[in-house]
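Hi, here's the filled form for the chain we discussed.

Project: internal
Contact: R.S.
Residues: 298
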Amino acid sequence: MAPMSELEHLSNALATPAQLSTSSSSLDGIPPDLETSIRYAGAQLTQAAGILLRLSQDIIAQAIVTFTRFWIGPEGGSLGIYAAKDVSAASLYLCAKLSFQPTSPRSILNVYTFLLSPDASPLWFVNPKGVPEKPAPDTYYLSEGTYQTERLVLMRIESTILRTLGFNTHVALPHTVALTYLQTLGTSSSAVAARVFEHLNAALLSPQLLYVTHQPNALAVAAIYLAARETGVKLVDGEWWEVFDVDREELGFLVVGMGSMENFVRAERQKWKTRPIPLVIDEVEAEMERRKMLEEGE
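And the returned structure, exactly as it came back:
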């Protein structure tokens, strides 16, 4: 049996049913579907920023999980008080600082200024109109004065995240676990391994918050099961997932959750179409006011 310290290293603190049923945002009147869309966009923003900063996928994934955890439960952060783009930047800055790839506040803020530019951003939920062939550099230039202001916000939100999470920044990821399980199952297919990683990375954006409701071993097993089925690779006979401490019910839920990501993303794009997803407080308030006016018009 592995020592308790090793088991803790491979597991995460999961959200409770009470935390999942009520969020601070919902208590402030943010509609659940809007909260879901903003969390999804914020996670994608974190992913894009991490890639531009050339951070490892481990750091990016940890930052997305940290970003997700911040909003959970009535004691979590509210989208009516904190801007999703600020929490995204602070989560990435914090996780990079705790790794072997720390990055400077200026680098973080330069990248976010670019990604949040409505005239230059390549992100569809920020710039639905599409990127001009040659966007003007002054549309994503971070002046020194703005940098100093944004740097103070970054530091403040980082402290807020730490307090909200009780200074528990540990995030165990399922990627390495999945590789170990594939070796144990005797599966050497590179196609299966690639598909496993695709599912695990996509699950970071899941509306079911899979990374904060299930342990890494269960996420790894579900990704392997789904990847093997999609690629036509036969795994060992029998209920092999039970060897990795995952029951059929949990496996089924995760397989459905991971398999539904493509439809979820398609639905989000269809839902927002030509409108950006609000990532700052003013935009959230404007979206809620727009919905209120539509309801009154009906």
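Let me know if anything looks off before we file it.
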